[in-house]
Amino acid sequence: MLKTALVLGGTGLVGKTLVEQLCRDHRYQTITCLVRKPLSKDFFSGNINKIEPIVVDFESLEDYQGYFGCQHIYVCLGTTIKKAGSKSAFRKVDFEYVHVAAQLARAQRAGSFVWISSVGASAKSNNFYLRVKGELENAIIGMSGLNNASAVRPSLLLGERKEMRPAEKLASALSPFLSPLLHGRLIKYKPVQAADVAAQMIRLQVF
What we know:
The chain is of the alpha/beta class. The chain has a single domain (about 5-165, about 190-205), classed as Rossmann fold (3-Layer(aba) Sandwich). Helix content is about 35%, strand content about 15%. It has 6 helices and 8 strands, in the order βαβββααβαββαβα. The chain has helices at about 15-25, 80-85, 85-105, 130-140, 165-180, 195-205; strands at about 5-10, 30-35, 50-55, 70-75, 110-115, 150, 155-160, 190-195. The protein has a 6-stranded parallel β-sheet, sandwiched between helices. A two-stranded parallel ribbon has the order 7-8. Strand 7, helix 5 and strand 8 form a beta-alpha-beta unit. The longest helix is centred in the middle third of the chain and has 21 residues, at about 85-105. This is Male sterility domain-containing protein.
């Protein structure tokens, strides 16, 4: 039986490559993408006939809850404090939007729910970014009635981004030299390709 997928954050570094991988995956019939603004026809590559972009207001996700009744939900939403403008604005995107999405997935009885967290995420972290990620993990994993919830925890992401973040640009340059030194318990801190994160998200879904 062919699957249906819902993607939030499909225009970002991981989200875009995830949607393109889903388009090439013969197990999926349709991929609905909730986006902030209309996309150009050539934004995605692959079998774009599978894609249904829906422009939504993320401040009112509850108005689009009908889209959450699909088999597989992928959430790739995320920003930075610098880009968001404040800690509260960052938390709104990286915690509130994702948490609401999980609640809607539960209400609509979605088959599974996968989202992007971060290596080092911990609700007890002194780092604000990692603390928010950890609090979100606790909130979603502890949500009764949500089917098959899983988080991926990448380190610094590698890949072509319109706005290359300074840390990611540095990681990309140093990766060939540092990655061989990161092994054992440190292997999780290796910079990772966005395409590999997207592939891991797909592997976590229940078919």
